[in-house]
Amino acid sequence: MNKLQLFTKGIVKENPIFVLLLGLCPTLATTTSAINGMSMGLATLFVLVLSNMAISAIAPRVPDKVHIPVYIVVIATFVTVLQFVMQAWTPVIYKTLGLFIPLIVVNCIVLGRAEAFANQNGIIDSALDGLGQGMGFTFSLTVLGLVREVLGSGSVFGLKFISGDGILAFVMAPGAFLCLGYLMVLFNKFLKK
Amino acid sequence: MAAESNLKNMALCLTLVCLFCSAVLAAVYVVTKDPIERANANILKESIGLVLPPGGDLSEERPLEVGGLPSVYYVSSSAGTPAAYAIQSSTVGFSGPLTLMVGITADGKIYNTSVLSHSETPGLGAKCATDEPFMTQFEGFDPAEKILAVKKDGGDLDAITASTITSRAYALAIQNALAAFQTIKGE
Amino acid sequence: MEYFLIIISAIFVNNIMLAQFLGTCPFIGVSNKLSTATGMSGAVTFVITLATLVTWLINKYLLITFHLEFLQTIAFILVIAALVQVVEIVLKKISPALYQALGIYLPLITTNCAVLGVAINVVTKEFSFGGGPAHLLNLPETIVYAFATALGYGLAMILFAGLREHLELNDVPKAFRGVPIAFITVGILALAFMGFSGIV
Fold it and tell me: How far apart are alpha carbons C51 and C58 in whole angstroms?
């Protein structure tokens, strides 16, 4: 597999949300608008790339039986760093995403990539894998956020194209499940072969 | 790939990783502590700036009871006389606390309001912090002429669509701030 | 009265799964059979209640006392992981029958974000019930809240597993089969639960 494929497979073929069904909680909870979905995706991307790199560097020296706790500690460290950085420089986004920033620790994508890829590959490859998966995740969240925003608020990235409200249910919990379900149907129908 | 596991290297590895990570976090915490405080102070400063008329010397934070809860307020004075007050007021919205900064000029009119923090439903109650028509109706609101309550309760305020509870909480926070303003004036 | 409101709010109004989206992965993963859904609900209820209690105490008496709040995320996840291990070992010794029933679900729980989510929520978020003033929960309230939240998760999962078993027997278009139709069903279930909003 060449470097480009490492990067692109996360976007369609092994898309973490539509194909692997990983990291669904933040996907549903933070996609009330395109911009929120994108912010959550980028936050996860940050942790994913750094933890993949760190884990690929330390993996050969970690005793097998304690590798999961060690990986969790490493991931939690990067998540906490991200929390501080966001509080300091993007406090508004941090407040909007709230609980789902610390919950990146238990996002199955991050630990999943550490287990499935980073612990047996080099640092550069792991970084690319993290970047690809992170982009796939960000892309899916942005699309879902966009669909919900268009239907629910009648706006695109915060710019309103109708006056008044959209179909409010799409901004709320039921709309998240419905949109994700129908997007998966479209994904199955047209992209997954 | 992975090293052999025995009790000694397992304990050693976990301890070292935990110590190292704690050290990294402590370092990052120290570095970002000031920027975080500055960011929070900026949010407060911006919202005070928003609800008070421009110009005027801003006082330090002063303690005050608003709606039965301990809170704070700031005074803006021009040439030594208090011209306007920014009062922080908290009530309970639909899904959690709703905290406002309410600016009141010395003649008892509302200058402007701004949301400091809320946990309302995105797309519904959360509009109290972004919805132009809802927010602008408080600018220059004179409680002597109009009734500070949503139309459903016989008042003069337009509620946010499908978010009457949030709108009521917003109105109540302003009422509490107005009551607190009378207490300050009375002193 | 306040405890009653906490329970109603946690189970129905702010259902952790249907309104807050926590624990979606295992929810979709194990809800295809009623029996596994029941087993998982039991294990989750047990772990959420215990983990929230322990992390609440650690936060109050260790992290806050020694000004180590910046270690919150890392400490909580380690405590939860260790706790799940301990529960597994203890259960194996004390009650083999219960271990048989819950055992296989326990390792899955460490990465169930509902557990970490509730633990972080109760120490950072201010709650208000029945129009009372907003406040951080004290210990008894925390336990009641955690237990009721977990019950709400179990309720949603068991309801959904029942629906899904019927779904298996129906002729679903190919592209909808499996997870997509499951999500659409949860969406309708969530819509039904929205009817509870505003009652507390």
Answer: 10
Residue C157 domain boundaries: 2-194
Check if B97 contacts C (Cβ < 8 Å): yes
Q: In this structure, are residues C172 and C43 in contact, taking their beta carbons and an 8 Å threshold?
A: no
Verify whether the Cβ–Cβ distance A184 to C179 is below 8 Å: yes
């519904």: which residue's tokens? B124
- The pTM of the full predicted model, rounded to 2 decimals, is 0.87
Residue C199 located in a structural domain: no
Nearest CA in chain A to B39: A88
Number of domains chain C contains: 1
Q: Which residue has the tokens 């994913």?
A: A48
Instruction: Give the number of C-alpha atoms closer than 13 A to the C-alpha of residue C65, restricted to the C-beta side.
Output: 7
Q: Residue B24: its chain A contacts at CB < 8 A?
A: 77, 81
Q: Give every residue of chain A whose pLDDT is below 70, as ranges.
A: 1, 192-193
pLDDT in tens, C91-102: 888 888 778 777
Smallest CA–CA distance, residue A105 to chain C, in Å, is 8
Neighbours of C136 (CB within 10 A): 13
In a domain, C166, yes or no: yes
Contacts of B97 in chain C (CB under 8 A): 126, 128, 134
Nearest CA in chain C to B118: C126
For residue B102, list its beta bridge partners. Answer: B87, B113
Q: Which residues of A touch B121 (CB under 8 A)?
A: 171-172
Alpha carbon distance A93, C78 (integer Å): 27
CB pairs under 8 A between A and C: 119
- Each domain of chain B, given as residue ranges in start order, spans 49-186
What residues have CB less than 8 Å from A26, skipping those under 6 apart? A40, A44, A100, A103, A104, A107, A141
Task: List the 48-87 stretch of A: residues with Cβ below 8 A of B.
Answer: 58-67, 69-70, 73-74, 76-77, 80-81, 84-85, 87
CA dihedral A46, A47, A50, A51 (to 10 degrees): -160
What digits encode the pLDDT tens for the residues B99-147? 999 999 988 899 999 998 888 877 778 888 888 888 889 988 888 888 8
Q: At how many degrees (to 10) do helices A123-153 and A173-190 cross?
A: 120
- In three-state secondary structure terms, C127 is strand
